[in-house]
Amino acid sequence: MNSPESVFVDPEAAIRAAEDAPVAQFHIAASASLQERRTRTLKHGDTFAVFDHRGDIGGEPGNSEGLYHRDTRILSQLELLLEESRPLLLSSMTQDDNAVFSADLSNPDLLADGAIVLRREQIHLHRLKFIWQGACFERVLVRNFSDQPLRVRLTLRFASDFADLFEVRGEHRKARGESSAARDSDRCVSLRYVGLDQVERVTRLAFDPPPKTLTTARASFEVTLKPHEARRIFVRIGVPDAIENDWNGRQFYRQMRAARRALRLSSSRAATIDSSNSLFNEIARRAVSDLYMLITDTPQGPYPYAGTPWFSTPFGRDGIITALMTLWLDPNIAKGVLGFLAFTQATAIEPERDAEPGKILHEMRHGEMAALREVPFGRYYGSVDATPLFVLLLGEYYDRSGDLETVRKLWPNAEAALQWIDTYGDRDGDGFVEYYRQTKEGLANQGWKDSQDAVFHRDGLYAEGPIALCEVQAYVYGAKRHAAKLAALLGHSERAKQLQDQAEALRQRFEEHFWCEELSVYALALDGAKQPCRVVSSNSGQVLLTGIASNERAQRVAQTLMSPACFSGWGIRTIGLSEQRYNPMSYHNGSVWPHDNGLIALGLARYGQKQAAAQVFSGLFDAATYMDLRRLPELFCGFSRRQRNAPTQYPVACSPQAWASATILSLLQASLGLELSEASGEIAFYQPVLPNFIDELHLRGLKLSQGSADVLLHRHGNEVAVTVTRRDGSVVVLVRH
């Protein structure tokens, strides 16, 4: 009999399971958990850095820390030593606006010949770091708090493996390019890598003052300090620019102010959120700060990169959903997303990219492996939902902004997307949009649950394609309804009627083919044989987002998803407890994804399930209070909530992640029933509900072209009072029941 600590594995059963399991694609290796090292992230543009909580970058194999630029790790090691020892960590933080990382450190007991020559905590080290225009800048302030003069040696060890991001994620390559390093001067070092794509990538390190000794792997400084005296060391590490050879510490503070000012300027477009709950205020501030840190300015406008460390690049689906969730807060994000995706929309059939005319981008990469087609993601179109979501976002953006000029400009792109939906998206002509990859290198599953094992039948067998996901049909329904409205505005009345008729026909077919009476949910998908995947999944909750579901069935879906089999106490799981492939530690088969819950909450509110939406809000709020930096990650495990226990973290979840950050904003919108309409000049609250952890909420800077308003909401039992505390212009604030 096995002891409780042992696990018996039937070898034959394990072999059969391995044979049945699909081969993992572009798997993110989990040899080390991101949670273990309490990493800290900074980002600007196409450059981001992941440090440990000391501000170091570890050089161990399997470590994701580093300084990255355009999908290449341009620095893989950076370690600060004091007399060849790691300093003691006192504290560290990323400031609330995400502009600057700071860490306080001190010396350990320093020994010589077995005797203490310097007692601990006599030397204070204060590190400041920020990212700006392709480089990481650092200032190390060293101060002597002893009563004796001291001479200390500080060393920075550094290296770069120039690994492609997919290598860092765990992909193995048969060959790599050539690396070299050179000491350019007494204060500059260059690390170089010429890839197999014949592109030279360079990391330049500049120091001020010049180190006492400088090699291509170490910079050492000897600092003499009187009692209570301080000295500063400045470092710039990044891609070369026109001035780094003349760079010095005097420029550090000017560049730090510029980085902070850029973040402040972009986030100043957003409405502000303040409540009676200080913890919620921290969560909301962090969410908004993360969101604007992840936004990169493109020639077409601001675009939220999906998340660090694995997805710091444009993703079509992620960008659109983030923009949808933030429309009430800042519609300029949606305008930038629409512009960028229209600019990159596919115009030809390219099987190796899963591209077809009218299809919207899934992912864009700039690294060596993408350039060499070792991964297909240089410009990749393998998502089935980004295209209808693009049209849906365009309609929602118009409702929020009234920007008909942008609609007119992007209408040809919308029409191309609609044409893709009706042709390439529906190859068999059954009225549903399916996916089936054109290349074996592409993603096998092309909905938001894109892992290999995410789409299956009740018995656990994997669905064979082409696969029609339930939520994708809802997106198509919403896209065609919005497109009908926009067509009418642009004077295309016949097209508007056609689109409206198509939407209604889709709604009827959807109800007939996807509803699972015995489960009280919509099927996860239809497989290639048009057999429903009778699985209780969160996808059915996303169906509610666009109104395709009948009211009676929507109520039943809500009841199912809020039952203990689906709602963990922290949030709604991706699949229910009773499903064959349920695993609370999996990526898509039992975990909790904040953005998924945010979309479901919007759908619940649409069907009047405001208390259920508030319950989802409360669960995710409670989860965020346990998270590092009060930051909701990409996902967390789906274990049931237990008293006096925190949610269980997922080892390689991105944090921050754009749509996870935006989730708090969508949960707030769902609970309040908040809508801003440019056409009517109204800020409306439909049956507003405040969750039980908020007694009072103040929204400031809600903007329409007619003016702006600050609105105070106060909970009295189950009722919410709405008071306008400031109004500019002719904007109207009202409550509807």
Detailed description of the structure:
The protein has 737 residues and is α+β, with helices and mostly antiparallel strands. The chain has an eight-stranded antiparallel β-sheet with strand order 6-7-10-11-18-15-14-13, covered by helices on one side. Strands 1-2-3-4 form a four-stranded antiparallel β-sheet, with no helix packed on it. The N and C termini lie far apart (63 Å). α9 crosses α10 (470-489) and α10 packs antiparallel against α11 (493-514). It folds into two domains: 40-264, Distorted Sandwich (Beta-galactosidase, Chain A, domain 5), CATH 2.70.98.40; 269-286 and 297-662, Glycosyltransferase (Alpha/alpha barrel). It has 16 helices and 33 strands. It is globular, with a radius of gyration of 27 Å.
Itemize the secondary structure elements and their pairings.
Elements: H1 11-20, E1 40-44, E2 47-51, E3 66-69, E4 72-75, E5 77-82, E6 88-94, E7 101-106, E8 110-112, E9 115-118, E10 123-132, E11 135-144, E12 150-159, H2 165-168, E13 178-183, E14 188-194, E15 200-208, E16 213-214, E17 218-225, E18 230-238, H3 250-267, E19 272-275, H4 278-294, E20 295-298, E21 301-304, H5 316-325, H6 331-343, E22 363-364, H7 368-371, E23 379-380, H8 386-401, H9 404-422, E24 468-469, H10 470-489, H11 493-514, E25 515-516, E26 521-522, E27 525-526, H12 539-542, H13 551-561, H14 594-606, H15 610-626, H16 658-672, E28 674-677, E29 682-686, E30 696-704, E31 707-716, E32 719-729, E33 732-736
Parallel strand pairs: 29-33
Antiparallel strand pairs: 1-2, 2-3, 3-4, 5-12, 6-7, 7-10, 8-9, 10-11, 11-18, 12-17, 13-14, 14-15, 15-18, 16-17, 19-30, 20-21, 22-23, 24-27, 25-26, 28-29, 30-31, 31-32
Helix pairs in contact: 4-16, 5-6, 5-8, 5-16, 6-8, 6-9, 8-9, 8-10, 9-10, 10-11, 14-15, 14-16, 15-16
